[in-house]
Amino acid sequence: METNTLSKHSLTRIECTHALMNVRDALEILSGKWKLPILIALSTGEMRFKQIGKEVSGITDKMLSKELKDLEINQLVTRTVLDTFPPTVIYKRTEHADSLSEVISALRSWGAFHRQKIIGPR
Predict the structure, then answer these.
(1) pTM greater than the 0.85 cutoff
(2) What is the pLDDT of residues 43-82, one digit of tens each?
(3) Do residues 13 and 38 both lie within one domain?
């Protein structure tokens, strides 16, 4: 049986195919410029739409709306409409989104390492 190497682990071709499929699924859900910053902003607690927009600087209302819908479809964010006038909408991370904490931490660490390697110490 033919094997491929991924990091320090030796994987069979089938294991490698499954690993790639899982990585592609994760990247498809989290891809883009805004999804991770939105999830990071919501890590401080629930927020209204405009609050998220202020925390994630540079995002347009249209893009924020689209990204929040995608995150809701993928069960990473809940949207609650409060019975107020005018209606108030609250967004909150789900437990499923909290399972990304280690991934986000690893990306933050690697990003700092990469920035230092490319740009140098600051």
Answers:
(1) no
(2) 999 999 999 999 999 999 999 999 999 999 999 999 999 9
(3) no
The DSSP code sequence of 72-115 is HHTTSEEEEEES-SS-EEEEEE-HHHHTTHHHHHHHHHHHHHHH
Domain, as residue range, for 24: 1-31
* Residues β-bridged to residue 48: 90
- Give the pairing type, strands 77-82 and 47-48: unpaired
Q: What is the DSSP letter of 8?
A: T
How far apart are the C-alpha atoms of 32 and 65, rounded to whole Å?
14
Across 16-38, b (16+ Cβ under 10 Å) vs e yields beeeeeeeeeeeebbeeebbbbb
Q: Are 38 and 67 a contacting pair, CB within 8 Å?
A: yes
Domain count for the chain, please give it.
2
